[in-house]
Design brief:
The protein is built from 3 helices and no strands. It is rod-shaped, with a radius of gyration of 35 Å.
């Protein structure tokens, strides 16, 4: 009987184990929680949220402009008149009201 050389017997199993581990890491790198697919999804989410942020900032700027125009130092009388009529629901007899 011949003796078994353990290095020759274990080498294919060790190479197979290394290949399986490499495949697991490769799969995680592509499809894992922090892989390439998650990166693409995060980038698309960022794009959508940046668009929503731009809309919100535009609305905020519009409201800030109205507040500035109605502040004590620089009251815009036309805007004040418009807001008062809208809140009170009143109009002069010679006016035509258009409501959405």
């Amino acid at each position: 009987m011949s003796r078994i050389d353990w290095r020759q017997a274990l080498a294919p199993g060790l190479y197979g184990l290394i290949c399986v581990i490499a495949l697991i890491f490769g799969h995680s790198a592509i499809d894992g929680d922090r892989g390439l697919q998650a990166l693409y999804e995060a980038r698309s989410t960022i794009t959508v949220l940046q668009a929503e942020l731009a809309v919100a900032e535009a609305e905020r700027d519009e409201v800030a402009n109205r507040v500035r125009r109605l502040s004590d130092g620089t009251i815009d009388l036309d805007l004040l008149d418009e807001r008062a009529r809208m809140v009170l629901g009143q109009a002069r007899p010679d006016e035509i009201l258009l409501r959405p």
